[in-house]
Design a protein that fits this description.
- Two copies of one chain form a homodimer.
- By secondary structure, the first copy, chain A, is α/β, with parallel strands linked by helices.
- Chain A contains ten helices and 18 strands.
- In chain A, 45% of the residues are buried.
Chain lengths: 306, 306
């Protein structure tokens, strides 16, 4: 199963009747990483039938409301639903204070632990690493402390060929050593070479998330060659002055970054409410970087090696 | 135009696919008073076509998330929409700190002033008074600092009979004195008595909002004879122990309060997600207090003198 990205919302600033603020879920190896969590994200999860139970990590890029006002509600719901597993929360340092204050005055007892990792807006940092992936934060240029996130899938064990291991009656307890590349020796001394029993794992993927940023070629070095890049595209080219003023990007600028970084695929989002027809933004981006897609809520993208 | 109550949400604790947390709008004389503001309230306003521009007062009963997590998002949207008018915010004292913290770390400049009125959980207090209504808070017994709100419409001027004032060619500038009960004397000295030109205004109404409370007959004295009472009814009678444990009420208990207080009409809400068929709660309440209605989101109630 390849990693899959689910778009829960991608509107900028304020919600509209049809569009919700930024939130995404990246599912890798049965773990779910949430990227930003605008107001109503828990409703979007319900709407699209994505359970919050498997969310292990939540990454918040910055403290503008359209990127995190849904977090406290989601945490409350997780607790009321009986969550016991630790939640890894990654975001700007004051995020912890804001959450703690609301929990404290609400007289709430969270049933699970929050492991908080404050982001550093000054440099690229490895935030955390699991068996399956690592999360790296990197600086984005926005009006306040803001970071992007790079998620690198980590090397996986070799892929076991089910029919072959069954043919040789290899017990389950040997699977891990097969995945690590070992040959198998049966009780009668016969050696079955690993290459008969396993095949190369699917290649690891890289996903980069650039939530809110002015056009900034400095970020190219952090996202070089990623398989999929999400980059905000709040405005069209004819609003470039406005984009600069508010530290946002145009669809063309997102495409230029994608091209410079030689990414496999570009997904644009964080659309200004002024655009009813998002294909205008898509077309503008495609003129510079053909392999562009829209982060429309409800869409999902299987992420494969570019 | 009679005052009208709009239900935006009435589910307890966590949202479901179909039901949102507590929020209501009471519209009196073109001013809108919001009562509680759970997450996603601004989306509910959009959904039901109610503009946030006329909201002059927001009353927050207590700091459990399902009653206020939508407030910061609504305030942000009001500011981004260019609001300039002061907003009167009424709620537990820490609410101001929570809002200020999020505004400050978000680098947000609100374009309008918030006039904050901290509630007192110990006794009945007149919070604020406008030309058309007054807002009174009163203690509710819940797990944390919690108040109900009583909204009293204030005496209105006499109702001008349009056809009559036109018949006598009475200039607009005299309308206020007619409303106050004065007779009219024309330039030729003819006196037209007020009773020919005006009629009695519609009677003033009283609405009481009891968001979250254990069954508590102490509140009866605060809500005596109101025209419409909203009272939470989280559970059914067979979950009365659970209701007590969490400081909530059953549908039967809400009806007992309504009956004791001799109110005109009862609206129940704050339904536990366990109830798919809300008519079970309605029927339970009706056995004690016949004139009961469900606070289902999207419903509106014209409030008239009982």
């Amino acid at each position: 199963l390849n990693p899959t990205l689910y778009i829960l919302g991608s509107n900028s600033a304020t919600p509209t009747r049809e569009r919700h603020p930024t939130s995404q879920i990246l599912k890798i190896d049965n773990q779910k990483i949430m990227l930003d969590c605008g107001e109503g994200t828990q409703n979007q999860l319900l709407k699209f039938g994505i359970r919050h139970t498997g969310i292990t990590h939540i990454c918040i890029s910055h403290l503008h409301g359209d990127h995190y006002f849904g977090l406290i509600g989601l945490l409350s719901t997780m607790s009321l639903s009986g969550r016991k597993d630790v939640l890894h929360l990654i975001g700007p340092p004051p995020l912890k204070e804001i959450i703690d204050l609301q929990i404290s005055y609400g007289g709430i007892h969270l049933n699970f632990e929050i492991a908080f990792y404050p982001t550093n807006p000054e440099e690229r940092c490895l935030v955390t690493q699991t068996k399956s992936f690592e999360i790296i934060s990197f600086p984005l240029k926005h009006r306040i402390h803001c970071t992007g996130f790079l998620i690198n899938e980590l090397p996986k064990g070799r892929h076991i060929i089910k029919s072959e291991v069954e043919k040789y009656n290899i017990p389950f307890i040997y699977y891990n050593s097969l995945k690590a590349g070992s040959d198998f020796t049966s009780s009668d001394g016969t050696m079955i070479p690993n290459k008969l029993l396993t095949e190369d794992p699917s290649p690891t993927i890289q996903y980069a998330f650039c939530s809110d940023t002015i056009f900034d070629t400095e970020i190219v070095k952090y996202i070089q060659n990623v398989d999929v890049l999400y980059h905000e595209a709040t405005f069209m080219k004819n609003q470039e002055d406005r984009a600069n003023l508010y530290f946002h990007s145009t669809a063309e600028q997102a495409a230029i970054i994608a091209k410079m970084a030689k990414v496999g695929q570009l997904i644009i989002g964080h659309f200004s409410s002024r655009y009813e027809n998002l294909n205008l933004l898509l077309d503008e981006s495609k003129t510079v970087f053909e392999n562009t897609y829209l982060a429309e809520e409800g869409n999902s993208f299987e992420i494969t090696k570019a």
